Amino acid sequence: MTDRPFKDETLLGHAGNKPQANFGIVNPPVYHASTILFPTVAALEEMLKDKDRQSKVSYGRFGTPTTFALEEAVAAVEGADKAIALPSGQAAAAGALLTFLKADDHLLMTDSVYGPVRALCDTTFKGLGIETTYYDPLIGAGIAALIRPNTRVIYLESPGSLTFEVQDVPAIAAAARSAGCISMMDNSWATPLFCKPLALGVDISIQAATKYIVGHADAMMGLVLCRNTHYRQLKNVIHGLGYCAAPDDCYLALRGFRTLAVRLARHAETGLTLARWLASRPEVARVLHPALPGDPGHALWQRDFTGTCGLFAFTLAPCPPAALAAMLDGMKIFAMGFSWGGYESLLVKVNPETMRSATGWAEKGPLLRIHAGLEDPGDLIADLEAGLGRLKAAS
Ligand SMILES: Cc1ncc(COP(=O)(O)O)c(C=O)c1O
Looking at residue 2, what is its pLDDT? Predict the structure, then answer.
């Protein structure tokens, strides 16, 4: 993996494609399949003997060439040996966690984790006898003090959902490794382009490919990325649970992936333009964007990431709810929605205070999350400016 021959942008354009296996067609066709037929008893028995048959075409649920093309491409760019496609980012997190956790195990979970993963831990996992302790995302090497004899998994998400704390990934991964725990990281914000969790020492990387990999707000997809050592165990549990990504969605995800670098460059640039503009406004109390100098996570971001996406947040000075509604309800371009990573800009109020137990959330004013889309940045600023005008008028 360390002597990869091509740069990421080149891999983005080619990894996983096998045109000569498909009449020279550039993109892998969408193979729909449940039943796979074997011509002879010998061929059938040959398939059953092959322990890795789940990466070959042997049964619809185990994937088709469309699935494998996506998995191969994303693994190549993220520097993983293998990837497994699942029907959503949430499924990727759940499948990875369930692979390594069982009753009486202990899970260390970042307090800044994506809300539905937190809910999974607090309900389903609790019911299965798996105990979760939430830790301060900024804990760094101090995580070692929280590891118990039965701690099995340490889960990271960097930057954190909604509040964008950048974690000391190598320090946490090293502590996990020396205690014999599995480390996992949700890498959806950075995408496989801007952070390589496995190279930072993490065992399992999780991608909500629904976001930037699909990139067009029209399909759900998740990926679990790993080294060969963990692959078979992950595959067995994930397929045992019945997760399989639909071939049409794998096709859309791979098509989106091919243009990830150019789209992200624009998302990033517009995001930074908006973030700087917002930081200069009197109505804005704080901008939370790790790529901005002055952000508390900036030094770690510079060390461990090679770029930024277009997702960040800002807090307003305290204001009446009706004034905030006047601002958000009247936006002309920004829309209110949660699933980010598409070409369209989003602006939504989020409530981290309802999802924190280890750290709390002290900011007084409302927190708004922005996804900078691909529209004209000047138009987006004008939309925000008019929104802040409505906010002021109604305050
Ligand atoms: C950081 C993060 N991880 C995981 C997910 C879940 O992805 P999906 O919507 O594909 O289930 C999301 C969705 O918003 C997310 O923001």
Answer: 46
> Is 380 touching ligand 1 by the criterion CB < 6 Å?
no
Render the burial of 158-191: b for 16+ CB within 10 Å, e for the rest.
Answer: bbbbbbbbbbbbbbbbbbbeebebbbbbbbbbbb
Q: Is the dihedral of CA 76, 63, 57, 182 positive or negative?
A: positive
Please tell me the pTM assigned to this model: 0.97
3-class SS of residue 173:
helix
Q: For residue 133, what are the contacts with CB-CB under 8 A and spacing of at least 6?
A: 106, 107, 108, 109, 146, 358
DSSP-derived 3-state class of residue 270:
helix
CB atoms inside a 10 Å sphere around CB 52: 9
Q: How far, in Å, CA of 198 to CA of 224, rounded? A: 12
Does the beta carbon of 89 sit less than 6 angstroms from any atom of ligand 1? yes
Q: How far is the CA of 189 from the centre of ligand 1 (A)?
A: 10
Tell me how far apart the alpha carbons of residues 290 and 279 are, in angstroms, rounded to a whole number: 13
Render pLDDT for 6-55 as a digit per residue (tens, 0 to 9): 999 999 999 999 999 999 999 999 999 999 999 999 999 988 887 766 66
Exactly one of 4, 7, 61, 148 is catalytic; which is it?
61
- 350 in Cβ contact with 313 (< 8 Å): yes
For ligand 1, mutation pick of 112, 185, 195, 210 (most atoms within 8 Å of CB): 210
